[in-house]
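Z., the sequence and structure:
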Amino acid sequence: MNHTSTPINTCDLDLHYLRLLAKSFPTVAAASTEIINLEAILNLPKGTEHFLTDIHGEDEAFRHVLKNASGTIRRKVDEIFASSLREHERQDLCTLIYYPREKLRLMRRSEKPEAIDEWYQLTLNRLVKVCQNVSSKYTRSKVQKALPPEFSYIIQELLHETEADPNKGAYFGRIISTIILTHRAEEFIEAMCRLIQRLAIDSLHIVGDIYDRGPGAHIIMDTLCDYHNVDVQWGNHDLLWMGAYAGNDSCIANVTRICLRYANLDTLEEGYGINLLPLATYAMETYAEGDLEVFNPKIKFVRKYYTDKEKRIIAQMHKAITVIQWKLEAACIDRHPEWEMEDRKQLHLIDGERGTITIEGVEYKLKDSYFPTIDPEAPFRLTEEEQSIITHLHGSFIGSEKLRRHVRFMLHHGSFYLVRNNNLLYHASIPLTEKGTFKEVEVGGVAYKGKALLDRLDRLVQLACRHHSDISAEQRYAIDFMWYLWCGPSSPSFDKSRMATLERYLLSDKEPQKEVKGWYYRLQDSEEICDMILREFGLNPQGAHIINGHVPVKTVKGEKPVRAGGKLLVIDGGFSKAYQPETGIAGYTLVFHSRGLQLVQHNPFESRKKAIAEGCDIIGNTVLEEWGAHRLRVRDTDKGRELQNQVHELHHLLKAYRSGLIREKG
């Protein structure tokens, strides 16, 4: 298109805006240079996006996936050195890139002192080649911003020169040898490895559930807070923690219960500074008697060792907070009869003397009937001590500085859904009716459905998590609703008939434990339904995808992550060790690069120590490859469309300069 031949039309672009734009580009030369720069960027290959979901506190496995870029780094090392390095040498190089400091320590122990300089020379040359490859799809400016300041100039020189250049070979070689001569080789190697990790992933999408089960959710959140480009689509477990920070006591009790259930005290105590001593003291006194088998912590996948005495104390705390939770939830249900969750109030159905509970007219034997704080005359009333415990925990959660930082990150970088590059991301569901239409959900007395529902809930979460000294009625409702988002039947982050917590704890009979999934889960294999959802969020179904997590894909039972003719990708493969017996694998990463989509399956991650010492990786098979007809460029992305709009506006500015409508400055 010949932009200069079109006559200026001030209706096309507001003259006031052009004058504002002229402040940034005050001359024809400045505007032209920016157009040239943007047009060049538009023709670069699309950056690589990585999609992960349901991490559930597995910090070691998560950080390993970031370090190896879901296998991207290994594939690039294999491509570059396929003919020059043996398999074990390529693996050693990859392990060095993932864990440079630890691998360097092992190298110093194994290499002879006289051979170390030669090892440095070989390794630095190899790392430069890998770094040149991973940086090739970015502008020099973008790479420069990612460089470690102390080595920025040297790395820039190495990235844009080569030993093969007859005019620069000696120059390149001298840089490498001088790094070694000045005893800076190890620091430089570590900096190069970090840079390779950084450039291998352009943007990271976490499709919900960072929290729960695993011991390191706070460590994962620290990693994400410092990550260069990341967004989060909130999962029900994330919303539960956000609700706890907002001051919802039912959320606080649930968070504490789940941590105790999985013996995950590190996240509470070390991660967020939640003092559990008052709960422990109370629980040891109140539940000194009785069988605690039902409340024994699940320690099979816990990294930390607990003595029998410690396990008993955790079980007592677990039982105490669970009873408190059931009472608090009943109060929340009473405040909101419109939620129609009356069936979740069950303590009055317990017959302590007979050791039974009657649900929907059927009497069931309880596995545990010792509940000394449940008054048959007022079963939902907190005792004075229980009220003191929840008051103390309330203050700890809303006063935790680290939790505040993490929730603020979730608010700034997160949402219920995201539309990005022809993909629709949300954690769990879009509530549907039996007929396959969008289900209306009442929020604050107004019915919402589809995209409007998620937009409304997005605003509600933002309101709930803003601490104020005076809480308005609207904010109080928002705080209460955080618990509904966790377990409400029509919540898009849950979408089941009920959360049968009491039934799972206290009954052996499986029938009352059933949680019937919403219609979304029963209709999601339909291409027609997926097309309807994609259109609702402004996407053309042709070539678009829905990316989900929440429900683990049980590959051992033949379930597939790719559904609805490839329109729906369910990428929860069991990152959490607690889910891996059900799934048969250890998670998925969806990788979307310039050539198309790849769904990569993870093998179980044993330990960081084993990954360093033995070079063990966790990348298994590629279960989906969807290649495009042509290589995607930046211009094919959402960012590219923004840049093309900027180019369009700058061309109008040029016309305004050349027509005299706006004068150049300087």
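Residues 1-6 have pLDDT under 50 and may be disordered. The chain is about 50% helix and 10% strand.

Let me know what you think.
H.
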